[in-house]
Structures are given as C-alpha cells and as structure tokens.
Amino acid sequence: MAELIQKGGIILVLILGLAFIATVIIIERLLYFRKIRIDEEKILFRLKATLEKGHYDEAISICEGNPSPITNLMKVGLEYKDHSEERIKDAIVSAANMEIPRLERYLSALGTIANIATLLGLLGTVTGNIRSFGVLGTMGAVGDPSLLAKGIAEALLTTAAGLIVSIPTIVFYNYLVNRVNHTIIRLENRVTELVLILVKTKGKDPA
C-alpha cells in the first residue's frame, strides 16, 4: 500500500481519503434507512393500539421515545388532534416536508465525491503524463527509466483509483436517492392513514 501511495502521489492519497468518506456515508445511510423501516412497522402497530384506546398522552410518549420520520409526523398530528381534519392533514404534510432534508442527509456530499474522484483521477493522469514527457524532454532517450516509469505509474494508478472509487459511489448514490424517493412516497401515504386514525379516535374517552 505504501508503495502504491508513493507511486500515485498526493492525488492518490486524496482519492483514498474520498473513498473512506464515501464508505462512511454509505454505511451510515444504509443503517439509517434499515432502522427507520424496521421501527416504522413496530411503532405504527403500538400507536394504533394506543390511539384506539384514546390514550393520546401515551401515544405522544411513544413518539418522543422513538424518534423517526413516522413518529415525528404522528406527534404533530396528535398536537393538532382537536383541529379539523383539513388542519390536521396540513400540519402533518408540513412536518413531512421537514423530514425530507433528514432523509437526504449527506447524499449531496456523496454525489460530489463521485464526481471529484473521477476528476482527481484525470488530474493524476495529466500530471503523470506531464512528468513523463518532462523526463523525456530533459534527458532524452537515455534518461533515467525509473523517472519515466514513476510518471506513467502515477497516471495509471490515479486514473484506476478514481474510477474504482467513483463507480460504486455513483451506484450507491443512485440507490440511496431511490430509497429517499420511495420513503417520501411512503410517508405521503402514511399521512392519509394517520389523519384517518386521528379523526376516527378524536374525542374518544380513554378505556
């Protein structure tokens, strides 16, 4: 690894740094979406059972103790439970719009890394070739072959490294964007469901 870094130069180090950052973001986002998906089904079941009994305070406690997009929406709905159905829906829709930045967290950085990694690889190609041609121009055909090889190695290594980082990053970026879009659609569907539950249970006395 040290030898590769030495051959690739500072540009290869930068690409490896971007690879590390991209990996951290991808893992964090995958775990986040997995968690909110699992929690959503369990919490909705608990909330429905609690609301059917008219235990609104308990429902709010469940929401506060299990923060996620769906519980944040339900908490807002519970706070507006004494208003009209239209007002409840508007409040939940506004809350849903506030959840979108949380769902899209770090995705712009991930897309930027995919582009920068490719550009850095190309930059390494250019600088490596410049170094190679500089050796030939300065020393001619009898110049030190190791200097020429070093320039070529930098050109090839950084290009390959940039593509190796960029390609999977783009794949995961598109995948995560699709997850965000599907989650937003699911939240929109949940809005109607939550409103119906709140309207149905409004004014119900606790059992």
What's this, in brief?
The protein has six helices and no strands.
Write the layout of secondary structure elements.
Elements: H1 2-52, H2 56-65, H3 69-79, H4 85-103, H5 107-139, H6 145-201
Helix pairs in contact: 1-2, 1-5, 1-6, 2-3, 3-4, 3-6, 4-6, 5-6
**Poorly predicted ranges (pLDDT <50, ≥5 residues)?**
none
In whole angstroms, the N-to-C terminal distance is 67 Å
State the helical fraction: over 70%
Order of helices and strands: HHHHHH
Please give the radius of gyration in angstroms: 27 Å
Strand runs, count: 0
Tell me the domain tally.
Answer: 1
Structural class of the helices, strands and pairings? mainly alpha
| SS field, number of helical segments | 6
Estimate the mean pLDDT confidence: 80
Biggest pleated-sheet summary: none
State the shape: rod-shaped
Residues in β-strands, percent: under 5%
Provide structural commentary.
- Helices cover 87% and strands 0% of the residues.
- By secondary structure, the protein is mainly α.
- The chain has one domain.
- The chain is rod-shaped and about 85 Å long.
